[in-house]
């Protein structure tokens, strides 16, 4: 059985992240290139590159390969009516709804996707990736990385908000019968 090696990288920083806003399809911040280019050197030849459909993931993935394949399963968690609003605005306008979303993985923002739905979507994607041996790089979003990590570790959904994912964070996984988290030493 040939192994699947999967590296997930969070897209580079956006203005929405900096302002603690629920994202829209915004471009990357202007100072993102130097950080992202330094990460590009860590990806080996022959690695196939996937990304979410949003502009920020496509821009980040383009630093690794001109032949990025967009995967809908890597899209950001849909935030529905909260798209473009800051956390403070949602707290001021809908405090109970925000608390419900933070406390209950089954609860979704109006017109959006719940954490449970996001985790289910990413679990299905991981099942598919397990059948695709070789080296893969997937550029996606902080919430998708959280969902993947919960799935691989078989952690409860209530752990979702205990994970912080910074821009350009990297998660290495391997699959040869089951998904395993790969920790390595960088010099």
From TrEMBL:
- Gene3D superfamilies attached here? Phosphoglycerate mutase-like
Show the InterPro entries listed in the entry.
Answer: His_Pase_superF_clade-1 (IPR013078), His_PPase_superfam (IPR029033), PGM_Phosphatase (IPR050275)
| Xref: SUPFAM superfamilies | Phosphoglycerate mutase-like (SSF53254)
> What Pfam families would the database entry show?
His_Phos_1
Please give the start and end residues of each transmembrane region: none
- Could you tell me what this protein is called? Histidine phosphatase family protein
Per the UniProt record, the source organism is: Pseudomonas sessilinigenes
